[in-house]
Amino acid sequence: MSPDDALRTAGLRATRQRRSVLASLRQRPDAVTAQDLHAELRRAGEPVGLTTVYRTLTALADAGLLDVLPRDGEQAFRRCGDVHHHHLVCETCNRVEELSADEVERWVSDAAARHGFAVTGHRADIFGICAACRAGV
Amino acid sequence: MSPDDALRTAGLRATRQRRSVLASLRQRPDAVTAQDLHAELRRAGEPVGLTTVYRTLTALADAGLLDVLPRDGEQAFRRCGDVHHHHLVCETCNRVEELSADEVERWVSDAAARHGFAVTGHRADIFGICAACRAGV
DNA sequence: GTTGTTGCAAAGAATTTGCAACATA
DNA sequence: TATGTTGCAAATTCTTTGCAACAAC
């Protein structure tokens, strides 16, 4: 999905600021804070008001285009490709890898059905230490 | 695990305030905010300073006894029975049911091994609408 | 042109810290 | 008794809002 498509999906106009925010999010697989993203854009010479960063991230998260994670006292956002969230997270370098998982899909349907739930989404994260970090890189 | 054991595990002394916080957490399956927990304890006639609530929740989360979730702009905490987190969350009433799942355990090991990760933990959440909420209760 | 968006400054909340009195082991 | 804990008030963030200038459709 292109940045402009994403914005359309969220019912937002395509502005320079929002494109910058989306472009930055696309490049990073890990979660980022509004404060950090604001600082990063400023460093990159594409200044966007902190207020706008907050409003854009919140709007995208409301539209279901971003996941929200807690990150010591702050809210961190990360893009989520689709309705299914399967991640492998390194607790040392915070890098995130996407996973695909048929077993999980099946488990989700079965478990929800057993409990009488209508599924709207799911998330499966594995936390660990990646090979590079274990090697001390 | 008893409240006092939990505190010992976290390397904390057993005080009246911390026991109150833990007792309150035990009774609720859903996540709670430091602010809300503080108000609740005050209503229950077991006043604990807001500062202490924050410090206790943070310490327990650091010790791995609590999960931290984002809850619009605030951090919500919920107890997690063990290292495995499998929840069925109703997006309407926010009730949380615990799940067990062998399929998920297997998937976790396999996926991590394929990517060279050393697993430290995992989490699998299913979001949906529970039967009661769908019935309009 | 109409309506949505931006960003500043200010307000509002959440969370943390300093420190003296107090409780636990 | 030695050390960890509490809670108040103050200080620090993080996040939201009011509003006038500006940009997208």
Low-confidence segments of chain A? none
Q: Termini of chain A, distance in Å?
A: 34 Å
Number of strands of chain A: 6
Helix/sheet category of chain A: alpha+beta
Quickly count the domains of chain A: 2
Name given to the CATH architecture of the largest domain in chain A: Orthogonal Bundle
Could you tell me the CATH topology label of the largest domain in chain A.
Arc Repressor Mutant, subunit A
Question: What is the H-and-E element order of chain A?
Answer: HHEHHEEEEHEH
Q: In CATH, what is the class of the largest domain in chain A?
A: Mainly Alpha
User: What is the spatial order of strands in the main beta sheet of chain A?
Assistant: 1-3-2
State the gist of this model:
The structure is a homodimer of 137-residue chains. By secondary structure, chain A is an alpha+beta fold.
Would you mind describing this structure in some detail?
2 copies of one chain form a homodimer. With 137 residues, the first copy, chain A, is an alpha+beta fold. Chain A folds into 2 domains: 3-78, Arc Repressor Mutant, subunit A (Orthogonal Bundle); 85-134, Ferric-uptake regulator, C-terminal dimerisarion domain (Dna Ligase, domain 1, 2-Layer Sandwich), CATH 3.30.1490. Helices cover 43% and strands 26% of the residues of chain A. Chain A has helices spanning 3-9, 16-27, 34-43, 50-62, 102-114, 131-134; strands at residues 32-33, 66-71, 74-79, 84-90, 96-98, 118-129. Chain A is globular. The mean pLDDT of chain A is 79. Chains A and B meet through strand 2, helix 5 and strand 6 of A and strand 2, helix 5 and strand 6 of B. Strand 6 of chain A pairs antiparallel with strand 6 (118-129) of chain B, so a sheet runs across the interface. The structure holds a DNA duplex (25 and 25 nucleotides).
